[in-house]
Structure formats: structure tokens, C-alpha cells
Amino acid sequence: MKNWNKKQISKEQVRFLQEKYNIDALTASILTRRGISDGKQIQFYLETDARFLHNPFLFNNMEDVVDRIFQAKDENEKVLIFGDRDVDGITSTVVLYDCLTNMGLDVRCRLPSGTDPYGLNKKSIDEFANEYGTLIITVDCGISNTEEVSYASSLGMDVIVLDHHNPPDILPSPAVIIDPKCAGSGYPFKDISGCAVAYKVVSALRFAKSDLYKNEISLLVPVIEGKDVFIEVLKVQNLVEKDFLREKITPGTSIMETKLIDFLQGQQIFVWDLKRTKQILDSLFGSGADFQMFDLSQEVAKKIPSMANMTLQNLRSKSKLARYNDEFDSEIKGFFNIFVTFVTMQLAAQYPKDASDDELDLQLVSLAALADIMPLTDENRILVTRGIAAMNNGKPRNGLIELLSLQELLGKRVNSIDLSWSIIPALNSTGRLGQPEVGLDLFLEKTAEKRMKLAKKIVEMNNERKRLGQEAYDYGLPKSKESVEKYGGKLCVVIDERINRGVSGILASKLVSFYNIPSMAITFVDDTAIGSMRSCRGFDATIFLDKMSDIFISHGGHNYAAGFSFKKENLPKFLSYLDQLYTNIQLDEPSTDTFEVDAELPPDFLTPNILKLVDKLEPYGESNRELLFMSRTLKITDYDIVGKVSKKQHLKLTLDCGKSKWPAIFWGGADYIHNEFEKGDFVDILYKINRNTFNGLETPQMIITDIRKSQK
User: Fold this and answer.
1) DSSP tag of 676
2) Pairing state of beta strands 682-694 and 697-709?
3) Distance between CA atoms of 109 and 124, rounded to whole angstroms?
4) What is the Cα 407 distance to its own chain's centre?
5) How far apart are the C-alpha atoms of 511 and 495, rounded to whole Å?
6) Which of 580, 517, 427 is nearest to 84 (CA)?
7) Helix, strand counts (H, E) of the chain
8) Cβ proximity of 497 and 442 under 8 Å
């Protein structure tokens, strides 16, 4: 019998979260039970405002990338965007291509097709050189292409690498690199997708059209603490904090004796409430100290009338950022927050197309995050939430609208689970079958008729992908058992030339699910071995593959998902390596058969309003599993057996929850009726809650995870 564990939590901690973040007790208890108690974490569960996203210019090399792209525009250069064949690579390419073409650049795209290897290759470089191309931008790849980048440089080309994979010890050079996983990248969050990296570059390019790009701004605030007066100045560039000065000033001090003169030299100075600021400065330095200052409060009041005549001290208490981040609980940081918000509003008004394009981009960013199994923590939550919201607001982007229609999701309120099950596998099938350009064309095609033809082709390709995946599993499972024994239950390796290279990753993932150990699936294309590795239980796939790097043509990826290739003639050496290395594999203890319960809901809580809580903690996926509830002593008022007779059947229940009757589905649970319980019995259940949509009508339903007859 599986264990149902509802972790004990502190009532004081729950009450603290309720009061500090103005949330209900149930939400506070779920966050506490999941170990989400720090404001820097909680903000990404409760907020969706883009203000909570990290600034793209936190990447140390972002200005270099922006400047090089603008140079390419000014000099009418030809640009090649080189992506990857999966959903992340396709969407990355589309997001950057749309932006650069809208800017007027001469751009072409290329993805690995057919039997092309992963990453930038010399054939593509040569063909681009023949077109007199001068700038290559890799997206969702490139960080491991040291040789290819050097080769492109030898032909007079510049290379920008936009990637998110684990970097090798030696980075490609010469290249400008944006990769959050590189040491010293400057970016505060490592686990964004390749498409999110491209999106950050696009966001930076849009900002760079403004007069504020690269200009330093100084925000000045006089702070009175008792009898002491301090002048605080925050230097800001590209909406990023660059420097800070806090100096105590004694009345009558000559301004020439302070650090302010050097710190403010050549700066545009912004203040909040010019009249008050001048009065304080005059009282300190006398009327002879003439500062050229701009009053931001007057401009902000035009956009946000409710902020007229409010002091920074008043505004501190209203700051959402300060609620979650203690460092923002000061007048100078509050002023900085207002400045960023104001500039963002100004740019949205000045460039309305950028704002609408941003919503289209975020739809692809959300697909990429889910497809690449990025953790749904930190800013990924906001990126995915805003992308899905844009789809549900009746404005799915071209290409996506056709796929949603064919998958019977158009007009339905889609969520991360819908996209992960229906849209992402279909898009991924184009690359798995060696035709990623079909997925790319779907998003770039201008005519609706052609897009629908492409979408139908993608659905057909996905059906073929499913067939090939099942074939690979049928080939691989018998071989896998011998492999697991050979490698001491620590590693599974399946090698079979019948496996289609496009589904090797799917097979490796299935083997991980089956054995709960790191697994490899390897096939052959001509004289080259192509392999995928998937991992689990804390074992880093890329570090493991690095130990065999001398035989690989290419290798790389993420901690739990990587790829590699080597010459077929090196297969004996590869197997010899495995014989040596598997003994040192260290795996975390496997998880037990324990269900972690997020909350126990009494029957009176089970009303349709509970969907608001489920929605609040969306999106669900990696590092944020679906909410799992428990309820006791619910009466079965009706049941039905559903599903095909030839397959395991499912149990559909109607449960009496006091105020309302709830439909519940227990997949594969038909045998429970008449064996474990009967109609009229009371049961305890573990369940998730979602929406069932039929004929345009949405109703809440329970998805039962486990069920027991109540002990009364």
C-alpha cells in the first residue's frame, strides 16, 4: 500500500505568509508544505507582471551582441541564424528571425536537417560564405562548436553564440557568447531555455532603439534619518543598477568637499519632487550649489494619476517588489522601481508594435520552456504564464492557431499540461523525423491556407513518430534487461541500428522511466553512431560524457538530457569506456512509493471555486508538479465503466461532496469497483483537479491518483 504523506507544517509560518503576502490560508499552507517560503521564490508564484523578469542587460555581453547586430543592419550585412531541430531550436530561430527581419536585416535561417549533426557545421558555414555572409548567430546551440566557430572566423565571419546548454571547459572563440550557464555570464538565473535566451536578446534590441540605450542616468534622493541627512545616488544604465553612492552631508559643507561632484559629473539627474529636493540641497550646500535635475514625479503623475503628490516614503509601502525583496524596501530602490516602470510604459506607448510582438514571442518562449523541461521556478513561471495567457486571450500566433485547431484545443482554455501533451510532441516530431524546416515554416508562413497544410503534415509526422517510438521500444526493451545486469543496475545502454535516430531520446527517456537509472539509446547513420542519454537520481549526463570526449565527434546538453556521436569504428572503445566508468556511477536513493499531499480538503471546500487556487499556482511541470489533494469519507453516489473493452478500462465516479456532486475519473481503475468498494460506500481519495471541456462548457473534475475505502 502506498503512503499518503501530508507534511506537518508550522501554523506560525502559514500565518506569517498570509499576512506578509496577503494570501489565503490554503495557498500559504501549500507553499509552506512545498518549502516555498522565501519572498524571492514566492514572488514568482504570486506575480505575473513583466517587471519581475530579469533584465536582459544583466548578461555581461548583451551590449556587444546588440551593437554587433545594429552594425550588421547599418552595413547591410547578410546574417545567418543557425538553430536546432527540436522545439526549443525552432522557436528560438523564429523569435530572432522575426525581430531581425522587422528591423530590416537581410536574414536567412538554417536548422540541422536529415542526417546533419547537432550544432553548427562547416558545410553550412561554407555555403553562407559563398553568399558573402558575414555574421552567424547560433540559437539553442553553438556553445560546443569550438572548431566550427574558429573555422567561420578564418573565413572572415563573426559569430554570436546564443545558447543555454552546459558549456565545455574551452569556450568557442572568437565569439560573443550569451549563455546563462557560462561562468561570469552575469545573469542571475541559469535555467532558461534557448528560446528565452533569444527572447532576451530581442528584448534588448527593442530597448536599444530608445535614447536611453547605454546612457547613464543618476537617481538622486535626499534621505533624512533623525538629525542626519544623507544623499543617495543610484547610477542606472539600460535599466540596470551600475553604481551607488550614499554620503552623509553636514549642513554648511561645500559641495566641492563631497564625492557628489565626481560621481554626478556628466550625468542626467532625476529626482522625485524637485521642489522638496532643492530645498534640502539648499539647506545643505546653500543656494550656490546648482544641480540640473529633472522631476520624474510630474511625468509619472501624467501616466499614473494616483501617484501625484505622493512621497517616496508613501510609495515604499505600495511596492510589490519591496514586499518580496527586502533590498527594495528603501526610498532609492523604490525610486529605481518607479523609474523602470515609467520607462517601460513610455516605450510601450512609443513602440506599440514591439509590445504586441512581445506577446507573440512569449507564446513560443512558453512552448520552449515546457518542451526542454525547464524548471518552472523563478522567471520561467512568468514567461510561461504570460505566454499561455496570450494564447488564451484569443490571440494565438500564426502557426500555433492551426495546430491548436487540429488538436481540438482552439477555444479551450489551454494550460501547460495541454501544451506538453498535444502541441509540443507534434512540433518535436518534425525534427525527430529530420524535417525541422516544416515546423519552422509553420511559424514563418504568411498565408493561412499553407499554414494549415503544414500543420496537417506535422500531425501526420507526429503519428509516424509515435509508431517509430513504439518500434524502438519493442527493439530496445529486450536488450535493455541484459544491459542493466551487465552494468550492475546503474546504467542501461541499448544499441540497435533499427532505431530511428529521431526517437533515440524518446527511447532513452522510456528506459529511465522503466528502470529509474541513467539510460542510453544508440543507433547508426552510415558510419556514425548517434546516441541520446537521459539521466535521473542526481547523476549528471554531461559530466559522464565528458570522460569519453576524446572519441566523440560532438557531445553536450543538459544535466539530465544529452546527446553524442562518434565514428562507428570507435564502438569497441566506447564500450570499453563504459566498462570502466559504470562502477563509479553514484545515484541518489530512489524515491519511495509515497504520495506527497499538498492539502487535505474537507467536503465543504470542494466547490468550483477551488479551480481559482489551481489556476493561481499554474503553470505545472518540472519542479512544480500538479497539486495533489486528499479528501476523506466521500460517498460514491454513482459509477460507470468507460474505455475500450480490449484495453484496461477506467472508472468514472460521482462523489457526494456536500455542497456539490463531483465527477471523478480513475484511469485504469475499473477493477476497484466490486472488489475494493461498491456504490454507496465512503472512500478516501488522492486526486488532482482540472477542467473537463465538452461542447464549449467547462466543468471541474477530479483525476484520482489513489483511492481507499474509508475506515468508519
Assistant:
1) T
2) antiparallel
3) 11
4) 23
5) 13
6) 427
7) 25, 23
8) no
In the block, cell 489551454 appears at 414
DSSP string, 383-431: HHHHHHHHHHTT-PPTTHHHHHHHTT-TTS---HHHIIIIIHHHHHHHH
Amino acid at site 649: Q
Neighbours of 265 (CB within 10 A): 8
Residues with Cβ within 8 Å of residue 403, at least 6 apart in sequence = 423, 426, 427, 442, 455, 458, 459
For residue 691, what are the β-bridge partners?
700
SS (H, E, C) 74-123: HCCCEEEEECCCCHHHHHHHHHHHHHHHHCCCEEEEECCCCCCCCCCCHH
Going by C-alpha positions, the residue among 354, 359, 423 that lies closest to residue 385 is 359
Q: pLDDT-based confidence at 80, cuts 50/70/90?
A: very high
What predicted TM-score, i.e. pTM, was given to this entire model?
0.94
Strands 158-162, 135-139: parallel, antiparallel or unpaired by DSSP?
parallel
- Confidence bin at 645 (pLDDT 50/70/90): low
CB 641 within 8 A of CB 649: yes
Which of the given ranges, 280-284, 314-318, 693-697, has the highest pLDDT on average? 280-284
With a cut of 70, say whether residue 271 has pLDDT above it: yes
Residue 542: DSSP 8-state: H
For the stretch 273-305, pLDDT in tens is 999 999 999 999 887 667 789 999 999 998 888
Cα–Cα dist 411/405, whole Å: 8
Cα(138)–Cα(132) distance, integer angstroms: 18
Q: Which long-range contacts (CB under 8 A, 24 or more apart) does 209-213 make?
A: 209/351, 210/343, 210/347, 210/350, 212/238, 212/239, 212/343, 213/66, 213/238
Alpha-carbon span 146 to 669, nearest angstrom:
53
> In which region does residue 134 sit, left (phi positive, over 0), alpha (psi from -120 to 50) or beta (all else)?
alpha
Is the pLDDT at 427 greater than 70? The verdict is: yes
